[in-house]
Design a protein that fits this description.
The chain is an alpha+beta fold. The chain has one domain. It contains four helices and twelve strands, in the order E-E-H-E-E-H-E-E-E-E-E-E-H-E-H-E. The strands form four sheets. It has a four-stranded antiparallel sheet, covered by helices on one side. The protein has a four-stranded mixed sheet with strand order 5-6-7-11, covered by helices on one side. A two-stranded antiparallel sheet has the order 3-9. The longest helix has 14 residues. The protein is globular, with a radius of gyration of 18 Å. The two termini are 17 Å apart.
Length: 188
């Protein structure tokens, strides 16, 4: 993740692991969000932000044991040995099968990884002013519904396709979801 000032970019983190599992159990937690703190960025006016979904290929070729225990990629549960790749995004949850809002009956799980699924998002024409001794908050929103949009404009039917987990039968859908990250993220 980085802030851009014209053509110059200030890196915030080489890589980070973001897990929304504990906060997305209800609307209050989802609305509160997830905070990443970076305390020592240069004071300036920035006009863009870049972030990536996934692990760059030069890091993705490594195993969790190649990193120190405090490194985000030391998590062995996030590495698929059969793909020789980290999992870039996990979309897991429940959905309503019978249009009765009292209970969510269906489960979905989409695990996406491998170098060809890596995406970099560039948000330009922003106005982010970092001033001395003041906390600046940048709110990044993710439109999760947009992640499930198909190329024809309709949305994925979770009753007929509710899993991608390690086989090549989900390749086209993995690519679609990976591409959807490019438009699912915005700055508010």
């Amino acid at each position: 993740m980085g802030l851009k000032e014209g053509e110059h970019e200030v890196s915030m983190n080489e890589i980070d692991f973001i897990d929304f599992t504990d906060i997305n159990v209800d609307m209050a937690g989802a609305s509160e969000g997830y905070t990443i703190s970076k305390l020592s960025l240069p004071v300036s006016n920035y006009d863009g932000l870049t972030m990536s979904i996934g692990v760059p290929s030069d890091l993705n070729e490594n195993l969790p044991s190649d990193f120190s225990s405090s490194h985000p990629l030391a998590r062995s549960s996030e590495h698929w040995s059969q793909w020789n790749s980290y999992i870039f995004s996990k979309l897991e949850g429940k959905y309503d099968e019978d249009n009765e809002p009292t209970q969510l009956e269906g489960n979905y799980v989409f695990h996406i990884g491998r170098d060809e699924m890596f995406r970099t998002i560039e948000l330009d024409d922003l106005d982010i002013a970092l001033k001395p001794d003041s906390g600046t908050r940048i709110t990044v929103e993710i439109d999760v519904k947009n992640l499930f949009r198909l190329s024809n404009g309709s949305y994925l039917d979770l009753e007929t396709q509710n899993e991608i987990h390690g086989d090549e039968s989900g390749e086209a859908l993995s690519l679609q979801i990976s591409n959807n990250w490019l438009t699912a993220i915005s700055i508010q």
